Structure formats: C-alpha cells, structure tokens
Amino acid sequence: MKNQQWQLKTRPQGLIGEEHFERVVCEMTDLAEGQVLVKNLYLSFDPTQRGWVNDMESYMPPVAIGEVMRAGTVGQVVSSKCSDFDEGDLVQGLGGWQEFFVSEQGIGLSKVPEGVTPQEALGIFGTTGLTAYFGLLDLSDPKPGDTVLVSGAAGATGSVAGQIAKLKGARVIGIAGGPEKCRWLTETAGFDAAIDYKNESVVEGIARLCPERINVFFDNVGGDILEAALDHLAMNARVILCGGISGYNETEPRPGPKNIMNLVITRSRMEGFIVIDYLSRIGEFLNDMLPWYRSGQIVHLEDVQEGFDNIPSTLQRLFSGQNLGKQLLKLAEPE
Amino acid sequence: MKNQQWQLKTRPQGLIGEEHFERVVCEMTDLAEGQVLVKNLYLSFDPTQRGWVNDMESYMPPVAIGEVMRAGTVGQVVSSKCSDFDEGDLVQGLGGWQEFFVSEQGIGLSKVPEGVTPQEALGIFGTTGLTAYFGLLDLSDPKPGDTVLVSGAAGATGSVAGQIAKLKGARVIGIAGGPEKCRWLTETAGFDAAIDYKNESVVEGIARLCPERINVFFDNVGGDILEAALDHLAMNARVILCGGISGYNETEPRPGPKNIMNLVITRSRMEGFIVIDYLSRIGEFLNDMLPWYRSGQIVHLEDVQEGFDNIPSTLQRLFSGQNLGKQLLKLAEPE
Questions:
Q1: What ranges do the domains of chain A cover?
Q2: What is the third-level CATH fold of A2-122+300-330?
Q3: Calpha distance A246→A158 (Å, rounded)
Q4: Most-buried pick from A185, B12, B245, B324 (CB within 10 A)?
C-alpha cells in the first residue's frame, strides 16, 4: 500500500509557495499493535502553519526538512489495532499533508463528535471556533455598550470572534480586505460596520467608526493595523493577540508599533494566547457553540478547495487573502 | 508678597533643558475664603514630567505655555482659610515649581501622615512607593522561584519594585547604568544580580542571569531593553509597563519591539498602569510599606539637590541617569 505526501523541501524565506514542498510517494508497512491507520478526508489551512516551517523554536517544534507538512485534519479510520478506535470512525488530529497517516496508540486523535460534519469539525467546532471563543472570552469580557474591533474579520477565527462579541451585546467593527468581504461582514455576519483596508485608511476608519474608542481589539493581523488600533484604545482596553498574519512571510521581523506607551496612558492590556491550551475545555465551548450555530445565531463560511495536487497552493490563499472564511481542502468523502 | 516660579516657556523637541523654562516673579494676592497658602519645601522629580510638557493628550492635560511647571511637592501651610487645614500642617500635592502655591478648598492637598518626613512623603511613602507596590503586585503575582527583571532598577520606583519582589520570594535581577548603581543594587538593595547596560550587552546579561527566563518584567525604560526582555519571557509572563524613559526625549516616536509575537508564543501579558488610579488605596500600601521600611527590609535612596535656581537642571539628572534613587530638591526646611 502506498501513501502520497507533501514534504517540506526547503524553508521559505519570505512568501511560502509550492516550491518549498515536494510530493513524495512512499510505501506503508503493516499496522503494528496499538496503531491506527487513518485516511485523511479534509485538511485545515491556518496562518500559524507558516510559523511551523520556520527554523525557530515556538509553541511547537518546527517541521523538519523532509518531514510531511503538519496540518490539522479530519479523517476516517481504515483499520485499527488500538481498542479506542474502530474502522469507520471519523477522527481529527494533526494528520498532515498526506493521504494516510498512522497514529500510535491513538495519541493526538479524537473522535469527531456525533452530529458534527468533517467540515464543521475543522471549522466552527474545531480549533477555529475554539480560538475565537476562548481568545475573546478568556482574555476579555465584552459587555453591552463596548466597542469590539476585529482584524482579519472575514477570516475563519475573526468572523466567529466578532459574532460572539455581538452575542455578548457589544458593538462590533471588522477590518477586512475588499468590498465583498466587508459586505459579508455587515449583511450576513451581523457586524455593525466594516473597514475595507484595501480601499480606505484603517486609521480614519477606526476614528470614524469607534468614536468611543476601542474596548476590545481581537487582532489576527499585527503590523500597521495593530498600531492603528493602539492609537484608539479606550481606558482599560484589552488587546487580544491571536495572530499577526501581516508579518508571517517577512524575511526580517518588522519593527513593532511605535505607540506601545498608549497601553500605559489608557491602562490597557495586550495579551497573547495559543488555542492548544484550551483543548481540554472543549466541552464548555461546545455547550455554547452548538446551540449558537445550529440556531443560526452564528454563521461560518468555509472555502473548500479540492485535490491533493492543490494542497500547497491552497495554503497561499490565506496570505493573499483569497479565502472568505475557513480555508479547507477536501481529499475524499467519508465512506 | 511675592512668589517665584519656573514657568514653561517653550515645548521641548527632544531633550528637555533649562532653556524651556522661564523664571518669573509674581505678586500674590490676599487669601480668599476657602483658600490655603502653602510654602513648598521639597519638589519631586519624575520621568513622567517629560510627558506633561508635550502638546499631547495623555492621562493629564499638558502643562500650558506660561503655566508654572507641574511637579509633586511637599510643603507647609502658611495660612489657611479652609477648615480642613491649619497653619503649620505638612501637606503634599502637585504644588509645582514655585515657592508658594494656593489650593482652592484644599483640593489636591493631603496631609503628610504622622511620623513621615517630607522626603519620605515624596519618596518611599509617596507616589514612588505606591507605583512600585501596586504596579508590581496588582499587575503580577511574583512567587518564590519566579525570576523578576527590573529595568531602571536603581531609580526610585525600580529599586522599590525589585525589593518588594524579593520580599515575595522571587529571584530579582536589575538593569542599571554604571558599576556604582549595580553595586548598590546587589550589595545594599538585595538584588540577586545586576546588569550594567552601559558596560555590557543587556541581551547577553539577561540570557546569562535568567536561565529559566523571565516571569515578571517591571519596565521603566522601554526601547531596546523591552525588546531584549520580550526575547526571554517564560510561559505566562507578565510585562508591567511602568514607564519608557528611553523614549521620553525622542522627537519622533521610535519603532516598538520587533518581537511582540513572543507574547503569543509564551501566552504572556503586557500591561500599563498609572499610579493615580491607586491613590485611594494608599492605606493598604502603608500597612505593608511602613513596617517593611521601618524595619530596614526595604531601603530607599534619595538624591536631594538644593536651591530654587537648580530646579530645571535637576530634572535633567533623571534623563542623564545621574540620580541614584529618588530625585528630590529641597527649597526650605519646615518651620
């Protein structure tokens, strides 16, 4: 039996592209005791994957050269020599860019909850939703009357974070690229207003749309957008550092915001988090998110590409801003 | 009766100096009902005064051109038409750079607590001590085994913050300029080690002295020192932004640290505060600080200059790093 993989060939300096990966076909050996063989059905694409290929210590070790590219996946158990998993189970984990993967003792695998589709398991009910939920609610406390600003607002995490803030009664402003995304934010996702960073000044947009300044900033972008937001903080504001996609493809780290001292003047807090710290609290999250999503109070878009060949180019969609909502790629349907 | 003042003449671009102030003699009118006339005895010099003369909204309005320079003071009541204050009372407030000042209804005046000297009232038991105490303990929770790094460590606030962290059982490293200050930190103030930023690399010093990385960083300096500290954060670290003296005399705001994303990777928090928010909790502070200081568990140095003529040049001592400990200037002894 053969397995196809996309392995990391070279480390990107700057923009990540297809040339940094190599398509490899390898032989699979028979399952040993305790192993679970999983066929990948859907791959998740996340900005944080860009950091995983840098040769730098971070919250996870870097993907090694010649190693299969790490990615979140939903798959189906093909065969199992581990008592916790049965053939046909839908499972999620870090299965990577490959057709099949083998888990030892089921470590890193969890079953997709009953009634949740593979797409949903990687999106709204997966790390995307979890990131939005705990990032927003654990690091801030949006209240009625508060102004919450979200960057990368039409992205998977940002769109959910903004909608949760709306459910908590806040006024929510999103920053996104292009009229289509901005329209989706206000017309479908229920944001109060949107700033199109490709066609208007973010600084002016914030000043116009946040006359009472910003109580909570949920930042996926960093760079100039972070600096603009820091200039408009309300007293005791909370800046939630979820990501900094504007800098992920830079060859040299860029200077930070000039106005960090605004945190002092406004007695504000800027804080980072990583979703993996919250995996054990998924029950708490699903208790809220299942009814919110099933009742239509929260909407979630998925951008689903297809085909093994298109895996590396699909990652690039995140950095060119082509995706609207959660970026996925379908390899196969469950049987 | 005449009053001498140092008024703000022009706004400094860059380094603040004597040329930005004008010495003025003005007539004083008779006290009206409700007024309190105070003779200034000691002036406090604080880095934040540099910000007060910028034409920029901040946590207090800017000092206007032609207005007496704002400063913390301890003085003695000369005469009072307000029932809350009597002739001879020692009082503190924002009396400014002048020989006498008049408070309306005693607003902004508070009596120096019994048994506290004027110098102590402006230093260890005043906003300096209060800043160190609440900045450290309200924004972090240093515990035995933690590593606490303090910049501006031989300054008034930094030296106290570091000693409080020691009392809480932490390992405390200070950053200061010059061997004399560093020796004082380790030999007198009980710091575990000191980094002399004038004679060694701060990045290397931190790496050497904080092998377990930094749990709490109490920052008075900003700039490169903040960036160096952000490179060495432990998990769930707390960065307390007390001040940023390295940037106060810059004509243009400098870029911020390149490595803000380290807050994400280490799930850390950076937070600002202003001591005036804690003035109402001074009782809580004195309950701890009076016994700590009287028993010698906390030491505090005061650098006391003298003479009305020397007021503007004394402010410059803060920015050239000439002061060791709290910078004060004595105008007169209490009667």
A1: 2-122+300-330, 127-276
A2: Quinone Oxidoreductase; Chain A, domain 1 (3.90.180)
A3: 14
A4: A185
Q: Which residue of A has its CA nearest to B254?
A: A258
Which residue type is seen at A244? G
In which band, very low, low, confident or very high, does the pLDDT at B163 lie, cut at 50, 70 and 90?
A: very high
Per-residue pLDDT reduced to its tens digit, B52-88: 999 988 889 999 999 999 999 999 999 999 999 999 9
Span A127-276 CATH architecture: 3-Layer(aba) Sandwich (3.40)
Q: Are residues A333 and A193 in contact, defined by beta-carbon separation less than 8 angstroms?
A: no
Burial state string for A196-221 with b = 16 or more CB within 10 A and e = fewer than 16 = bbeeeebbebbeebbeebbbbbbbbb
CA distance B61 to chain A (A): 12
Q: Give me the pLDDT at residue A248, please.
A: 78
Give me the CATH code for the B2-123+300-330 domain, please. Answer: 3.90.180.10
β-strand B100-104 against B110-111: which pairing, if any? Answer: unpaired
| Maximum pairwise Cα distance, chain A | 64
For residue A244, what pLDDT is reported?
85
**CA nearest to B59 within chain A:** A265
Contacting residues of A for B207, CB less than 8 Å apart: none
**Secondary structure string (H, E, C) spanning B45-62:** ECCHHHHHCCCCCCCCCC
pTM of the full predicted structure? 0.92
Provide CB contacts within 8 A for A258, sequence distance 6+: A227, B253, B254, B255, B256
Place of tokens 């911020």: B256
Tokens 């860029």 label which residue?
Answer: A254
